[in-house]
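Bumping with the actual sequence this time:
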Amino acid sequence: MEQVLSRPEASDAVSDAGWRFLLGTFRTSIPVGSLARAIGLAADAVAACGDDADGHLRVDARADRVVFTLQSLEHAAVTTLDVELALRISATADSSGFLTEPEIGTGAPRSVQMLEIAIDALDIAGIRPFWRAVLGYTGEAGAEGPKDPLVDPVEQGPAVWFQQMDEPRPQRNRIHFDICVPHDEAQRRVEAALEAGGRLVSATRAPAFWVLADQEGNEACVTTWQGRD
């Protein structure tokens, strides 16, 4: 029977197969040499997933790489079935001479990652309908409450979530980016941001997240799944 996995269970189940657990999904990247090969590999992955592909698999196929994402659309989380599908895709890729890879420290442009936009608000329930309407977004499966995150229904844009404020903070930005990276990429990404002129605002919640800022105080968080259970 399909079961939703905890964060540690999810990460442990697929890391050795070249996948990483990011924001309730499994994600991997496979370098390819042409769009034709990318489409062919995507078709092979869909075939490997069979009837479960539509409810679990998303594919971004380009001339240089294919990025696969797995998540149960019914549960808005990864399950034991997603683990099985990840292993099937890895085996299919391997049989064709490709490697499932999180692209950490490989010389790739960047590792697999996911982006969220966080909005600080005093009245989350009051502003959430505006952002839902203006972005054309919706809630995740089973998460349509007045304070729940918003997601792109066609899964192209970043998720938007809302952070509760206790009092107005006009002295700092109230919208920031959360960049969710593999747990074994986070330190590299933080160091790169600091070397590029950023500063560390807080690491008290690391490895769940590090708060960074540019030279003008605009903030961004590097996040991982760790430290949240």
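The tokens above came from a reply further down the thread. Helices lie at 7-14, 35-49, 53-56, 80-95, 124-135, 186-195.
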